[in-house]
């Protein structure tokens, strides 16, 4: 499918605009190639649930994230993993070393989700 440069640049600019907020980049890096619940993101990022949820909603509405419910927990994952590649490429351009996978980061002790506690529902 051929797309004009004008149309392509508009779509790319929209993505960069959505990712321009540092909290959204932090959320995507915290989710990584796996998935994370809101309580995990709250503990990992040190921010309030309502603040994180606003950013999650914006990214979900833009089609960057998708979610699934497991009991009372909602888990978020990247709908298109290429978004993580864009962030990693931006980090590399700035000579910033980012973790490669979710497993590279420790799970927060204060997260009570089934994935962090090992208590699957």
Indicate the topology.
Blueprint: H1 5-19, H2 22-31, E1 35-37, H3 38-45, H4 49-61, E2 65-70, E3 73-78, H5 82-93, H6 114-117
Antiparallel strand pairs: 1-3, 2-3
SSE topology string: HHEHHEEHH
Strand content: 5-15%
The low-pLDDT segments are: none
The CATH architecture can be given as Orthogonal Bundle
* Cross-sheet strand order for the largest sheet: 1-3-2
CATH level 1 name: Mainly Alpha
**Could you state the CATH homologous superfamily?**
Winged helix-like DNA-binding domain superfamily/Winged helix DNA-binding domain
Helix percent reads 40-55%
**Overall number of structural domains:** 1
- Major sheet summary line: 3 strands, antiparallel
Distance between the termini: 44 Å
Would you tell me the overall average pLDDT?
86
Structural class: alpha+beta
The dominant shape is globular
CATH topology: Arc Repressor Mutant, subunit A
User: What is the count of DSSP helices, taking H or I runs of 4+ residues?
Assistant: 6
Indicate the radius of gyration in whole angstroms: 15 Å
Q: Strand tally, please?
A: 3
